[in-house]
Amino acid sequence: MIVLNCLFDPRITGATRRVIGVAKELKAEGIETIVVCPAGPAPAVEAATEAGLGHRQFAFHKPPRPTKPLDVLSFFAHLPGEVMAFHRAIRETNADIVHVNGAIFLQPLIAGALSKAKVVWHLNDTILPGPVAKLLGLLGRALSNQVVVSGATVATHHGCKKVATFYSPVDQERFNARDIENWTVNEPIRVGILGNWNWVKGHKRFVEALGHLKDTHGLPIDAVAVGSILDNQRDYFEDMMAEAERLGVKDDIEVVGFVDKPRDMLATFDVLVLTSFSEGLPTCVNEAMAVGVPTVAFEVSGVREQLLSPDLVSGVVVPNGDSAGMAAAVADLVRDPARYAEYARNGIERVRTKFSIAHAAKAHAAVYREQVAKK
Length: 375
Fold this sequence. Notes:
Layout (H helix, E strand, L loop, with lengths): L1 E5 L7 H14 L4 E7 L4 H8 L3 E5 L10 H25 L3 E5 L4 H8 L4 E6 L6 H14 L2 E4 L2 H6 L5 E3 L23 E6 L8 H13 L5 E6 L7 H13 L6 E4 L5 H5 L4 E4 L8 H9 L3 E4 L4 H5 E2 L2 E2 L1 E4 L4 H12 L2 H18 L2 H17 L2
Parallel strand pairs: 1-2, 1-4, 2-3, 4-5, 5-6, 6-7, 8-9, 8-11, 9-10, 11-12, 12-15
Antiparallel strand pairs: 13-14
């Protein structure tokens, strides 16, 4: 069986790590994955090649933001030619499955529907406004053979009911657990955020929470922000640093760019905070759990599914946007060693039993085989 797994972002993202990690497992099942990325420098292609996977690259437009009308016009103007480019790749690779990552990644979605291959449409997040998401849900269900989601919240957001769930997996060999039995939280508190600098990741809310931790709760902080600062996000970064200076926490924040081995950085955190405006099932939360780092997260998308399992609570979920509440939750957690240690242990077990690469590969293989078996 051949799977053409289509990514519109050539960077190393949560989706990239899932695609490559699962593909390595699927090789043993006789399922070959070919990764598709846009033309140009592509760390995702380098990672795929290193993992022994095939790849295809050609020019196509990244799905545009609805708020940028010129980009939307350009996208649709080039859509027919780019659909044909994907159709050609499907035909030339003899793909059995076209796995489309993203709600508005229309080129492979349409190309797959026009081919003999089966289309798996993978919804990862809830970033689109509700009405737009539901409209795309109708289109995607019409053009695909199987809708898969990263969590129940994502399915509801897009108005999809008959779905399969592919949780964001963690490679526990790469994200091995630290020595949680001997971990103690000491001041200053090491609070971290993982994610490229952009408004979706909510760095302003991160900065606000740090201000509350320092001023309201009297906790010395050693904060760290891990993630790339892209050229088109430089102004955003500067604005956030100005806000940090205004709140008196700029000197408490270590700004780290892209890190090749995020596990080693995660292992220095006392707490991971998730301040995003939108997520699917955020990979960084699963990675933190695997390492043994408790998370405090805003209630967005699938974090409740991740952190609040009835028998394995591994973090705290606070109302979306409540930066003061997030700071209070962090302060309460680090001041309660027994609960902190329980959450760390539970997170490791939760990943082992629910979010491992092996579990994800089984789910992928089951969907792929079911679709190929259908006439």
